[in-house]
Amino acid sequence: MPLSAEEIASHPAALRSVQEQSRALIHVYETSPRLAAVFATQQRWLLGHVGLALHFRRDPNDRRTEMTVARFIEVVRRNSVASRNTAEAFVKEMLHYNIAEHVSPSGDGRARPLRVTEATIETFTNWIYAHLRTLDRIDGGNRLATFLERPDMLAKLQPLICDGLLTSVPVREPERTFSLFIWLNNGGIVMDWLMSGIDPEDANLDKIPTSVISISEFAHWLKLSRTHLARKLHDAEALGSIGWVGQRGHSVMWVSRQFFDEYMAVQAAKLAIIDAAFEACFPTAGGN
User: Fold this and answer.
1) Residues of the chain with CATH 1.10.10.10
2) Model pTM?
3) Does the pLDDT of residue 70 top 80, yes or no?
């Protein structure tokens, strides 16, 4: 049986495993910043998953299943992910940066078939690797090894993950501080960076030290506006979710236990969705 979010969140290995996952995702960000920008906010992250799911669900023998701008917009709006204009602008950006491409050089506007490029799929596969590895660390399973033997199953696995994400209340409606960051460009990476620097031995403290000291260096590394990042951090500070051990900018930043718990709850919900999708694809190959 797949792990539940509650089982994942309460497991003694959860924090260290999620931290390793966060470092892997940070590495993806560092090596493929343009593609990482696709997932820069939660809305864009969901838009990206919708596009991938439509790509993988295409049937070469049925033109009605082709991914088109019109079909993409329809799925996005049906699931209340974004407005029509936002969805259309997203597709144009993906085409501009060669994250997606037209199947043929000519065609009719919104009905013109699209596909995700091979380079995009290759990079996205690292996202799958990171999460399967986390699940294996938690329960000693062999999901990643199983997937590596059948990488073609990505075409079945990712759409199921997308379905789960679109219908998950914990993922789409997270608690207050997590919600602050999901609308910030690279907000997920901001949280990953904060949480990956926590000493697991400190995780039970009310104020948990991170490895972050300088907002300027943090913003520069993320290619974010220092002002915009500082504003979000100020909002989080007003909620009591972050602060500094000593003088602001000259001491270590801490995160509150509540913010930490919110982050772990969303990670657990996401991992449970991925595990359920994996179980549907590989019924006998999950955890021990």
Assistant:
1) 176-262
2) 0.92
3) yes
